[in-house]
Specification:
The chain has 7 helices and no strands. The chain has about 180 residues and is an all-alpha fold. The model has no long low-confidence stretch (mean pLDDT about 80).
Length: about 180
């Protein structure tokens, strides 16, 4: 426990350390460690505490996006691995709504355009949306410990989509790891 306290105190910048020392925010266990750390930084804890300039603040990030998020995007487009029911219920309806919104938007914008141009504009964005949709369906079948070929059941009129909705949206996946990956 003391080594955790010591690591925490050593990790504080001088401004934090002095501020907490002044306000008496250290416990009985942490006080001697903080006192040693102040002395190691050239500050006498029993003497007058020097006024420190405020620590420079780092600017707020413009976006919370980082390259670490790319793995999440990669998992959206891959047919490998497993998907939970939550992912299924988030991705599949969102992909349908995105497609419908794009379709309606292009119908309004390109009302008088020729049909091949409209097809290009509609099916251009449809490709990544459909890819993510199918990847999620295949991953969900993997979570049920079934082959991704089961996704072809969606092509069976009426019964196929109903079967897939019940199978993928309502039934739980296999517990623990299966042949398609870990849970």
């Amino acid at each position: 426990m003391l080594d955790v306290i010591e690591k925490t105190i050593r990790g504080m910048d001088t401004h934090q350390l002095v501020s907490r020392w002044r306000n008496g925010q250290f416990s009985e266990q942490a006080r001697p460690i903080a006192q040693r750390e102040l002395q190691a930084r050239g500050i006498d804890p029993d003497g007058p505490i020097p006024q420190l300039e405020p620590a420079p603040r780092e600017p707020e990030p413009i976006s919370n996006f980082s390259l670490d998020d790319v793995s999440f995007l990669r998992r959206l487009f891959t047919f490998k691995g497993r998907a939970s029911r939550l992912k299924f219920w988030l991705i599949v309806p969102a992909s349908w709504l995105a497609f419908i919104a794009i379709r309606v938007m292009f119908e309004i914008i390109f009302e008088r355009e020729s049909y091949p141009i409209v097809l290009l504009y509609v099916f251009g964005p449809l490709i990544p949306i459909a890819w993510v949709h199918w990847a999620t369906v295949v991953q969900r079948f993997h979570d049920r410990n079934k082959s991704g070929a089961w996704a072809s059941i969606l092509f069976v009129p009426v019964i196929g989509p109903i079967w897939a909705l019940i199978e993928l949206g309502c039934l739980p996946g296999t517990n623990g790891p299966n042949r398609y990956g870990r849970n």
